[in-house]
Amino acid sequence: MASTKVQQPVPEPPIRRGLTSIDKSLFETEIPVVAARIPLKQTTELSRNELKKVVLRIPRIQSIVADDESSELKKVLFYTHDKTQLPAEVLQLLADKQIDMVDHKIKLGYDYWTADQILQSVLPEDLLDESPTSFTQIGHIAHLNLRDEYLPHRLLIGQVILDKNKAIRTVVNKLDTIDNTFRNFKMEVLAGEEDFVAQISESNCTFRFDFSQVYWNSRLQGEHQRLVETFSPNEVVVDAFAGVGPFAVPAGKKGCAVLASDLNPSSAEALRGNVELNKVQHNVRTGNADARDWIRQSVLLIWKQPFPAYKPLITSRARGRAAHEALKQAKADPTFTATATSSAPPPPPPPAPAPEPEGPARNLVDHFVMNLPASAIEFLDAFRGVYRPLFELEGAEEAVEAKGEDKLPLVHCYCFTKDMDDPEGDILARATEALGFPVTRELKDYKLRFVRDVAPKKEMYCLEFRLTLEMVR
User: Fold this and answer.
1) Structure pTM?
2) Residue 87 in contact with residue 112, Cβ under 8 Å?
């Protein structure tokens, strides 16, 4: 059959502007097409070969359907409702094979249309440039941040989002900016259940929390993972703005010793719960304190109550190999052979040896994580003289000096900047003012990493540098 270019129909929902709530029956429509009634044994061959160019091709609509009158036939739907638009060779083929053509109606309803299509059909024409269908998903919650012009239609939008996303049970809209103290914000339920307790998985960990009471940003999953990957399992991490544990819990699961705290009581409670949920209590200690106090107290807490030395986990494969080797050695023992040849069952192989701890007990901090971009820089003053009380304790100053100045804690401070011309200059100037010491590129292990765009003319960075003895004394 000669190549023929056809124009497939593009279904669109009926226009229903002015609705204040969704009535699904208003979005039903029909698409008239021509169908060929083809015997079952010929349906697949013809639709894939001679009739391929004229078969209906619309996403999520079947092009071959049951025949209303005969179980021996199938209806192959064509792209048009007008027989005269079909190529002459197709009409001749159908005539030669004595295949009848009939009219057929494809019925589409609310469930067929996408969220974008529904909103394009119901929102005012001046709001159609960008349908507000994007959202952040936190467990079963869809979190919207609607612009002011969409707020009069927010309940309609919320219902469409709920209807079109089967994993969503609750749709909320952010009402204000994040509170600088507790990092949460007011929200309005637009559709679905008023259930804010979410559970999500990230970095092979499970997190459970009340989204209305704590801060969580799923867009930072990559950043959480990136930073935790830089930690060595035998290191000590202090997380001063820990939230519900996106840094602390994966770090603890890796083997790091972690002191994590958040000022928000709801976050601190969720943090404790997530530590237990992920079974990392042996590696993660939690608190509910001001970040400045937590930073200063942490060096003393860890010195006075050190974490045990890091002990590598034995994987099931390694345990199996060790058991196999132990059994092999046991069989080489003559007494084992004698027992094995008797009627008594052979003795069980000795258990695989437990891993030996790597290094001494952990009593000095290696990393400080400061994940409060709106104001974390202001807390850098906590490092000024932070080791002064520690050095009053017996053996502490000697231990720090033995470890070396190049092993003093590495600071990871998240921050915002609105200076698009010189973001580094702005951030370093503010960090220098808060710390009371020059924060420059010359500091050991200095990095200033771009994290993400937050808003027009507002960016998020992570400032990293190693503390010096001059700063901490």
Assistant:
1) 0.82
2) no
**Short-list 53, 229, 405, CA closest to 397:** 405
In sequence order, the 6+-apart residues with CB closer than 8 A to the CB of 4 are 53, 54, 87
DSSP 31-62: EEEEEEEEEHHHHHHHHHTTTGGGB---TT--
CA distance 38 to 144: 49
d(CA 431, CA 332): 66
Give residue-wise pLDDT tens across range 2-20.
455 678 999 999 999 999 9
Spatial CB neighbours of 119, under 8 Å, sequence gap ≥ 6: 131, 132, 133, 157, 160
Convert the pLDDT of each residue in 65-111 to its tens digit. 999 999 999 999 999 999 999 999 999 999 999 999 999 999 999 99
Quick one: which H or E segment has residue 157? helix 154-164
pLDDT of residue 214: 94
Rounded-to-integer distance, Cα 273 and Cα 170, Å: 23
